[in-house]
Design a protein that fits this description.
By secondary structure, this protein is mainly α. It has a single domain, classed as ABC transporter involved in vitamin B12 uptake, BtuC (Orthogonal Bundle), CATH 1.10.3470. Helix content is about 70%, strand content about 5%. A two-stranded antiparallel ribbon has the order 1-2. Helix 3 crosses helix 8, helix 3 runs antiparallel to helix 13 and helix 5 packs across helix 10. The longest helix has about 30 residues. About 40% of the residues are buried. Belongs to the binding-protein-dependent transport system permease family. LivHM subfamily. One of its GO terms (biological process) is amino acid transport. One of its GO terms (cellular component) is plasma membrane. One of its GO terms (molecular function) is transmembrane transporter activity.
């Protein structure tokens, strides 16, 4: 039994390196997309201190809006632009209806408000777009389809073109957001708000404007993630479960760290693919569904602030 757990998987990796590369590639793509979703959580948490439980359903809602508009006869790129407008209006509505009335309330109140937002978006999405799964408009958006087979390491490794596009687009967005945080005036204002709301207000930074910008940025991230995940499977409310895989990513990387979201996403994505492929047969499969949360639990026990999070010491 110990041989099967600790030795045999590594023997399989050495014996079939092409399969190892395939598993690593699939895990890398999933990890980059997890990191993209996690960035939506990080953006909002850094600027407002609110853990946005609704980020998962925002991924679904954005993708449903895009596909729903296209099904109603709107050209694909016009539907994409209109979806961005919808996400901006959602950001404004959240700031006006949810955040502004709850300023200075305990964090748990704001957290529960995002629960309410989650179920509102589920109900509103089902009312407007229906509850049936939909196909992502991949071809209409110009995203590539098909497979590239590469002979390497004594075997064949398959690269889905949509996975390559997803990895490239997600990486560009992650890099752009990192630069935005570090180099732009708005990014510096976001970091100031994250450090102290009162200090930010004292130097003339508008919390209301910052919150709208942050929620809109999180909406753009949700739309990109929804397009990529929808292209890999389909657009349905089940995508919310996939989006919530970002929670273990946040635990690993730290709730306020953009680099942490990237590293945490890669660890979770690669880890669950390797676990499913090499250790899954030992437990009957299904490791992908729970391994990420097991890793997160281990981090909570031994390093609750995550790899890149700041250790907060409170004196009482």
């Amino acid at each position: 039994m110990l041989y099967n757990i600790f030795i045999d998987p590594f023997v399989q990796m050495a014996g079939a390196p092409d399969l190892l590369v395939q598993a690593l590639w699939d895990g890398l793509v999933s990890g980059v997309l997890y990191a993209l979703i996690a960035l939506g959580f990080v953006l909002i948490f850094k600027a407002s201190g609110v853990f946005n439980f609704a980020q998962g359903i925002m991924v679904v809602f954005a993708a449903l809006t895009l596909v729903g508009l296209y099904e109603k006869g709107v050209p694909a790129y016009v539907a994409l632009a209109l979806t961005l407008v919808v996400m901006f209006l959602l950001a404004v509505a959240v700031e006006r209806v949810v955040l502004r009335p709850l300023v200075n309330q305990p964090d748990i109140i704001l957290f529960m408000a995002t629960f309410g937002l989650t179920y509102f978006l589920i109900g509103f999405g089902e009312l407007v777009f229906g509850g049936n799964p939909k196909a992502m408009i991949t071809a209409q958006l110009g995203l590539p389809r098909g497979v590239i087979d590469v002979e390497m390491l004594g075997g064949r490794v398959s690269f889905q073109k949509i996975d390559i596009a997803a990895a490239v687009i997600a990486s560009i967005m992650v890099a752009a957001l990192a630069v935005f945080f570090q180099k732009t005036r708005i990014g510096r204002a976001l970091r100031a708000v994250a450090d102290s709301h009162k200090a930010a207000l004292s130097v003339g930074i508008s919390l209301n404007q910052i919150w709208v910008i942050v929620w809109f940025a999180a909406g753009v991230v949700a739309l990109a993630a929804g397009i990529m995940w929808g292209a890999r499977s389909e657009v349905s409310f089940a995508l919310e479960i996939v989006a919530l895989k970002a929670l273990p990513v946040l635990v690993l990387g730290g709730f306020t760290s953009v680099p942490g979201a990237i590293v945490g996403g890669l660890i979770i994505g690669v880890g669950e693919k390797l676990g499913e492929f090499y250790w899954g047969p030992l437990v009957g499969g299904g490791i992908e569904t729970w391994l990420a949360y097991f890793i997160a639990l281990a981090f909570l026990l031994f390093r609750p602030q995550g790899l890149f999070g700041e250790k907060i010491i409170e004196r009482i």
